[in-house]
Design goal:
Length: 130
């Protein structure tokens, strides 16, 4: 009996923690998997901090989308894997590995809750040694 109650409580805790971490729109993951900057732009805030290969820019939504499109054009995307995601208060984040023809890149994507939805306010893309 004690084992059943323990398993039930553990399962409920796991379910609640899993559901609470899923505030990141699935369209963001799909956009990275397809290398689709236009789709990714739908989830961007009006201003985005973009750090690509140690080059930092604070850009408007359209400029950020254009820079991501240029990155995707130079690095043909073949896949994207979510390594970790989390949520705290009114923000959440996603860390993943972008697989391209030119190697793998670590992607950190930070979102803030604005107007009752989460929007990207920072994207960081760094080359990995994998």
């Amino acid at each position: 009996m004690k084992k059943t109650v323990f398993l039930l409580i553990s399962g409920m805790f796991f379910l609640v923690s899993t559901l609470s971490a899923q505030d990141i729109p699935t369209g963001i993951v799909v956009a990275f998997k397809k290398g689709n900057a236009q789709e990714l732009g739908k989830y961007m805030a009006d201003k985005v901090d973009l750090i690509v290969l140690n080059k930092t820019s604070n850009l408007g939504k359209q400029q950020a989308e254009s820079m991501i499109a240029a990155f995707f054009a130079e690095n043909q995307v073949s896949g994207f894997t979510v390594n970790h995601q989390g949520k705290r208060d009114e923000s959440c984040f996603l860390i993943g590995t972008l697989t391209t023809g030119n190697g793998n890149f670590r992607v950190n994507c930070f979102l803030k809750r604005l107007e009752n939805k989460y929007l990207i306010h920072q994207i960081r893309i760094d080359k990995t040694n994998e």
